[in-house]
Amino acid sequence: MSDNEGENTPKSTFSTYMAEGDQLFHKGEYAKAIESYSTALILQPDDKNCLVARSKCFVIMGDPENALKDAEDSLKEDKNFFKGLYQKAEALYTLGDFEFALVFYHRGHKLRPELQEFRLGIQKAQEAISNSVGSPSSVKLQNKGDLSFFHKADELKMARQKPFLHPVKEMKPQGQKTTTSERTAKQLLGVLHADKEYLEKLLKDEDLIKGKTRSGERLQDVILKCISYLDTRTEFWRQQKPIYARERDRKLLQEQWNQSRHHPPSDPTCYILKNLEEIDAALSTGNAESSLKKARDVLKTVQGWSEEDLPDKKEVLGNLYSCIGNALMDLGDMDKALDNHIKDLELAQQSKLIDSKSRALDNIGRVYARVGKFQQAIEAWEEKIPLVRGSLEKAWLFHEIGRCYLELKNLTEAKDYGIRSLSAADDISDEKWQLNASVLVAQAELKLGNYKASVLHFERALDRAKLLQDDAARDAIQKALHETRQIVTL
Questions:
Q1: Cβ contact 348:360 at 8 Å
Q2: Which residues are 212's β-sheet partners?
Q3: pLDDT in tens, 335-382
Q4: Which letter does DSSP use for residue 386 in this model?
Q5: What is the CATH number of domain 14-132?
Q6: With a threshold of 0.85, does the pTM exceed it?
Q7: Neighbours of 490 (CB within 10 A)
Q8: Which fold has domain 389-490?
Q9: How far apart are CA 412 and CA 414, in angstroms?
Q10: DSSP string, 307-328
Q11: In this structure, is the dihedral angle defined by the CA atoms of residues 211, 214, 215 and 216, taken in order, positive or negative?
């Protein structure tokens, strides 16, 4: 066997790389997430969930072509795989193929009508088509025999069979300027327009464009790719939301806002879900201020509606208080965060909403734990235990309660909850929570003086840290394990 053989072979399991990709995705490190998903796909090339996950990253990274390819690959074995259908629609939408995107949003909605994503997709695709070609009501059909569409279709088929040639630009009369087009492009690109102008200036530097990057790619090609990408996005944004449409929307925005405060839109559920999605997206990407502002605005609007307009008003208000509380937690305002989570709990108890009550108790416990009020955190979380659904939630909850007991030096309870957390993690083979629970049990056993048991649990935790390639956890566990072994040998 050669020395280089096996260097590119994945050193861990598919599930590990998949979990790593998911974690990186939630952190917003999309390029690294793509690497992890790609490594996972070496091990299981046809895993449709992994293909969809990588496709999402490609969409966010501005590579809709690869996003579309992954989405289509995820549908090879199962044409009705709804996640693949949704991702294909998203990729087509990003490419600017709004009509085809609409087809796949509809197809997914037919299969899974309860999913809000497909309803929102249909709505945004229809709006993009309307903004691109105008409202269907503004188009007057005439009874004239024009077969040019079919001729163009034939020409397109022929063109696909020929090698690609750069089109010759049409010569414009001398002195004619494209000021309107340039002004439009500047508005559409915003701050990126200055970057485009800078790149175009770089192309005029003949010495610079002859150079190469470290990877060997010509600088001229890199610059041209960047300009081409910006041109593509300009056209996409022009189709999706032309300038005249933006001006029109700005004029109507205040009027619509004033009306919405007293009269809900025709589909209030769609309005609420869309805004909750945006609030959550802002928070998950680290923009707590934006999330907080939007949540408070929507809260004021919903408070102005009657329960006839919105039958689930209390549930919606609870959701919004929860969002506000989470944003305030991220901003470090724990007192106000606690107030909002308590409001969420009160509404849940009034309406007997089990899931909402579970969420509120969860968040109340997190606030108390964050400020060091461990006994109050335990009380909130122990009240939540009967409401828990699924082993993953149990693993997390039991671990957090155990950590609080460890902080309070109630070592027996800390150990018991650690064992319960470990059992729940073992049920679903979740390596991350197996690691966390093993460390908790090991620390409790160490403080109880059960050194051999502590060593066993530290060793198990070390195996999980290596498997997860968590270097920080591995180093900390190795140090604790070394110190515990020394005590055993004394």
A1: yes
A2: 218
A3: 999 999 999 999 999 989 998 999 999 999 999 998 999 999 999 999
A4: G
A5: 1.25.40.10
A6: no
A7: 5
A8: 1.25.40
A9: 5
A10: TTT-TTHHHHHHHHHHHHHHHH
A11: positive
